[in-house]
């Protein structure tokens, strides 16, 4: 064996060339930057200078990469595919690297093909039969080693004809010595990136290379590539009909394939980037991109494997005369994903489509990315930007610049959010949870360094789809194309035995009363209609009469993408219905401690009497008149919300009211619960949670009623969890849907205001970056600009304005006794059953009889007509019976944003609760359920629901089942005839 130099010496000239090129590129860019500053060039002059500099830098990179081939060609290919991510000069110049590498000399090609043929199954059999080694001429005709049809980073491709059949085939021949060279290149690239990370830590991309290092050796094994190709081909041909992709994978020749030689059928066609030829044959570019996207969705979500090294050079367009069919090539790097990661990718796609920030965070966690726990919204702009709809090149550059400006503007805030806020102290009489990070713990982390390899390849594939669409000048919503594939992945991941079988969960409980039985039968028909029209996801309805449960029914599934059925034991976050629980809990303690409504708060809570709050009474707090609607602590991140009880109380003690206590009522969306909980602790010496645990245990609902007390096994959306996942469309309803159009009509007198036209997909509705909407910013805009009375939400942290974030385990465990109660409908109905039955339920006294009467005392009006008013922490509603008789404040209860509602009618000893997980600004499903039960059981109902229900029934009768196809149609019809809307009724129930 001849002497070989060590690789460190053998590759020294190559490495010197690479590092010197990096120095030259750095110098070009740095000098341009300095000259722009020194000569104070204007914007146009700077742009021209950067165009020249980027072109020179790209040409330098291309020359070196072309000479050195290997990994550097692959880097060029990736950059060339990202027309949207880098200045266009790089894409234009580096696109020449796609399949234009210097070919291997013919002598070496002949040597490689001959040697590899002898190792194939055909070559081994040939030698056994003929007593000699196989040669190229024994297998192929027309093979020209000097004329490859393409030459890329790993191999080059030749065309030949099989002697036995006359079939044309391609031979993918590996460049000699490519494997050790690639490994050395990877190490050099990692060194370069280490230098960059040292100069600019936030650009530390080294973790991305870890995945490449693992995958590159596989790419140099053509037997592995053939297995990948066969897997993809099988998936494409056996997928369900609605998931088929009009794409083709060449047929491999296993008997002629070895480690360094891959033979497959020859497919004629043009490059996907050959726009001139594509247009010559009038091929629809959008359909072409759609089919390529569908093939990717098929690989990832149906076949569990996808190409991890895509670039435009790996696609041909075949059958141009018949409209064009994409041909998929090169499966050297394929990512095989586990079931949980595949579902994580699917949920990431669906969350991006739904603009659901929390689900994005959750899906990232499932695939191994953990964003900052204190405020996970901090890094979401980048993720959403990656998922935006593709746009033509000029528009794409504008999007890129807008995103850059936005990130620079928010950089300091993101850095603050990257550090956990210190936790002051947890609940006074309860231990600190073991998983809470201790005060002072700081951890700085680049957004990239937590990305696992699979996710890097996933985003790279999406980047290729985006870059290809930009290059072909196509506006392409690849997320919409991928949706059915992602939904399929979620569905098959849920065992069939666990999936919802019927819309209504069995058994349905009724007490045997004829009216309850009738209501149950009608509700079952209603639930089927609501589910068919997608007006509900999951829902529970429960009712008590004379202190006894008479109806308990559940329907639907636990989440939009959680196919498990809702049962009567499923838990729902009912938002402000939690205020009803808080008010009842406080009322249950008042008589034991002789607390009067006219008592000053300082009688029990001396520290509260600061900064103009000295005159605040118990009644002011219970009627939302304390003036602290906006008094939210700063830096209210999730961990502080869950654990910093002392800090929140101290903040309320020192806050200055917005007005003299009692002067007017402003809805205390969040602060109400903390104020009442603070009173409970100061009056009794024990926490709200301790009193709640005692109450729910006494009345047998300890596993159906939680607020800051939820056990850990219920927090995640796992197999054993009973918690329903929330899906909020409130922002869309108000800003873009029929409700938005009604608001526009009220504000402008023109119902066709384009900004709110839900049918106009190119309207102002998609004005955010790349069409990706920001629900938190939209919520603030709505609260600030649509005449909603002050609520405190406009000052809330971003994650609290996106109701989907209440799916977050930290928020579910958070102590927010205004908005974070988790209930079954039975538990809520039971609590209000005591209010409706002189304080007793199930033959147990929860409240003193006269306390119920005092809770119904009106402290102030909510609306000018006085049809709704504040009692002792609950809402008083005018009621109307079937005959139209009106009763002033005949019902007492509280609604929650999105549609949950619980109330009692004391005159009828009746109570009812509705819980649901599809949150709408106006919930048709909730209103219909209340109207059905109350009408059949002859119970007076709140006027709002009575009127709304009449409007719904009228709409249903007018349109009938044929024309009425969606919730949006119902809402639009309602608002067309319903006149001006009352936003407070929509937002707080």
Automatic annotation (TrEMBL):
Annotated SUPFAM superfamilies: beta-lactamase/transpeptidase-like, Protein kinase-like (PK-like)
Domain of life: Eukaryota
Biased composition (Basic and acidic residues): 394-409
Keyword set, alphabetical order: Kinase, Transferase
InterPro entries recorded: ABC1_dom (IPR004147), Beta-lactam-related (IPR001466), Beta-lactam/transpept-like (IPR012338), Kinase-like_dom_sf (IPR011009), Mito_struct-func_regulator (IPR051130)
Domain Beta-lactamase-related: residue ranges: 532-696, 796-920
GO molecular function terms attached to this record: kinase activity
Domain ABC1 atypical kinase-like: 135-363
Residues covered by region (Disordered): 394-417
Record-given protein name: Putative aarF domain-containing protein kinase 1
Organism this protein belongs to: Gracilariopsis chorda
Lineage, highest ranks first: Eukaryota, Rhodophyta, Florideophyceae, Rhodymeniophycidae, Gracilariales
């Amino acid at each position: 064996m001849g002497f070989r130099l060590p690789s460190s010496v053998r590759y020294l000239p190559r490495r010197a060339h690479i590092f010197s090129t990096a120095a030259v590129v750095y110098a070009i860019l740095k000098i341009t930057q300095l000259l722009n500053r020194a000569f104070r060039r204007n914007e146009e002059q700077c742009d021209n200078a950067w165009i020249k500099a980027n072109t020179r830098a790209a040409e330098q990179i291309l020359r070196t990469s072309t000479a050195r081939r290997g990994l550097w060609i692959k880097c060029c290919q990736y950059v060339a595919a990202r027309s949207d991510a880098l200045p266009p000069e790089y894409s234009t110049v580096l696109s020449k690297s796609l399949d234009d590498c210097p070919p291997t000399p013919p002598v070496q090609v002949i040597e490689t093909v001959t040697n590899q043929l002898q190792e194939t199954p055909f070559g081994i059999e040939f030698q056994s039969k003929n007593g000699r080694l196989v040669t190229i001429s024994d297998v192929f005709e027309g093979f020209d080693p000097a004329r490859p049809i393409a030459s890329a980073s790993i191999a080059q491709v030749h065309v030949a004809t099989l002697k036995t059949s006359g079939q044309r085939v391609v031979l993918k021949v590996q460049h000699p010595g490519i494997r050790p060279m690639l490994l050395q290149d990877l190490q050099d690239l990692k060194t370069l990136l280490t230098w960059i990370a040292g100069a600019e830590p936030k650009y530390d991309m080294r973790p991305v290379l870890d995945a490449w290092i693992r995958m590159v050796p596989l790419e140099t094994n053509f037997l592995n590539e053939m297995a990948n190709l066969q897997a993809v081909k099988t998936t494409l041909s056996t997928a369900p009909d609605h998931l088929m992709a009009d794409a083709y994978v060449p047929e491999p020749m296993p008997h002629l394939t070895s480690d360094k030689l891959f033979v497959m059928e020859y497919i004629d066609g043009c490059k996907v980037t050959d726009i001139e030829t594509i247009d010559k044959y009038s091929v629809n570019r959008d359909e072409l991109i759609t089919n390529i996207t569908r093939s990717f969705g098929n690989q990832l979500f149906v076949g569990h494997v996808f190409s991890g090294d895509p670039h435009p050079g790996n696609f041909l367009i075949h059958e141009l005369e018949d409209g064009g069919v994409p041909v998929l090539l090169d499966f050297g790097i394929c990512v095989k994903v586990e079931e949980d990661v595949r579902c994580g990718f699917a949920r990431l796609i669906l969350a991006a489509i739904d603009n659901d920030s929390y689900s994005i965070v959750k899906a990232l966690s499932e695939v191994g990315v953990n964003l900052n726990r204190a405020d996970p919204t901090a890094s979401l702009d980048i993720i959403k930007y990656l998922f935006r709809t593709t746009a033509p090149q000029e528009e794409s550059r504008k999007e890129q610049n807008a995103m850059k400006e936005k990130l620079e503007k928010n950089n300091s805030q993101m850095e603050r959010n990257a550090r956990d806020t210190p936790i002051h102290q947890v609940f006074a009489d309860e231990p600190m949870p073991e998983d809470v990070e201790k005060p002072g713990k700081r951890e700085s982390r680049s957004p990239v360094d937590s990305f696992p390899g699979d996710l890097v390849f996933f985003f790279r594939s999406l980047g290729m789809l985006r870059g290809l669409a930009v290059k072909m000048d196509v506006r392409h919503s690849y997320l919409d194309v991928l949706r059915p594939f992602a939904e399929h992945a979620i569905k098959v991941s849920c065992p069939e035995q666990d999936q919802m079988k019927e819309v209504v969960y069995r058994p349905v409980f009724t007490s045997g009363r004829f009216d309850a039985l009738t209501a149950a039968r009608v509700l079952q028909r209603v639930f089927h209609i609501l589910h068919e029209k997608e007006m509900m996801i999951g829902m529970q309805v429960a009712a008590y009469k004379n202190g006894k449960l008479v109806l308990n029914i559940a329907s639907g599934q636990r989440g939009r993408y959680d196919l498990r059925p809702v049962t009567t034991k499923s838990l729902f976050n009912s938002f402000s219905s939690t205020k009803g629980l808080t008010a009842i809990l406080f009322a249950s303690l008042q008589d034991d401690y002789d607390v009067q409504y006219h008592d000053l708060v300082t009688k029990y809570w001396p520290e509260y009497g600061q900064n103009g709050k000295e005159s605040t009474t118990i009644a002011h707090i219970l009627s939302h008149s304390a003036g602290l609607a906006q008094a939210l602590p700063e830096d209210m991140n999730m961990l502080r919300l869950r654990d910093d009880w002392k800090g929140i109380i101290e903040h309320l003690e020192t806050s200055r009211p917005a007005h003299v206590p009692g002067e007017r009522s402003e809805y205390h969306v969040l602060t109400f619960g903390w104020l009442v909980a603070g009173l409970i602790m100061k009056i009794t010496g024990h926490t709200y949670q301790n009193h709640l645990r005692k109450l729910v245990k006494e009345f047998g609902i300890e596993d159906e009623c939680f607020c800051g007390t939820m056990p850990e096994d219920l927090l995640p959306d796992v197999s054993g969890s009973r918690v329903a996942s929330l899906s909020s469309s409130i922002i869309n309803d108000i800003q873009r849907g029929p409700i938005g159009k009604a608001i526009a009509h009220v504000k402008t007198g023109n119902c066709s205001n384009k900004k709110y036209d839900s049918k106009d997909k190119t309207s102002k509705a998609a004005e955010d970056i790349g069409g990706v909407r920001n629900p938190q910013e939209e919520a603030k805009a709505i609260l600030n600009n649509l005449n909603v009375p002050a609520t405190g939400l406009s000052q809330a942290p971003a994650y609290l304005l996106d109701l989907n974030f209440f799916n977050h385990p930290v928020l579910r465990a958070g102590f927010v006794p205004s908005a974070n109660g988790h209930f079954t409908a039975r538990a809520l109905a039971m609590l209000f059953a005591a209010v409706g039955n002189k304080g007793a339920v199930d033959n147990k006294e929860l409240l003193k009889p006269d306390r119920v009467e005092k809770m119904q005392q009106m402290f102030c009006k909510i609306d000018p007509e006085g049809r709704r008013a504040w009692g002792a922490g609950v809402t008083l509603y005018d009621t109307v019976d079937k005959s139209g008789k009106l009763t002033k404040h005949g019902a007492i209860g509280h609604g929650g944003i999105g549609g949950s509602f619980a109330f009692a009618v004391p005159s009828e000893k009746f109570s009812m609760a509705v819980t649901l997980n599809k949150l709408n600004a106006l919930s048709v499903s909730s209103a219909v359920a209340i109207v059905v039960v109350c009408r059949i059981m002859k119970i007076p109902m709140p006027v709002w629901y009575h009127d709304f229900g009449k409007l719904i029934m009228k709409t249903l009768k007018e349109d009938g089942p044929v024309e009425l196809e969606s919730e949006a149609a119902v809402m639009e019809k309602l608002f067309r005839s319903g006149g001006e809307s009352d936003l407070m009724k929509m937002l707080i129930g």
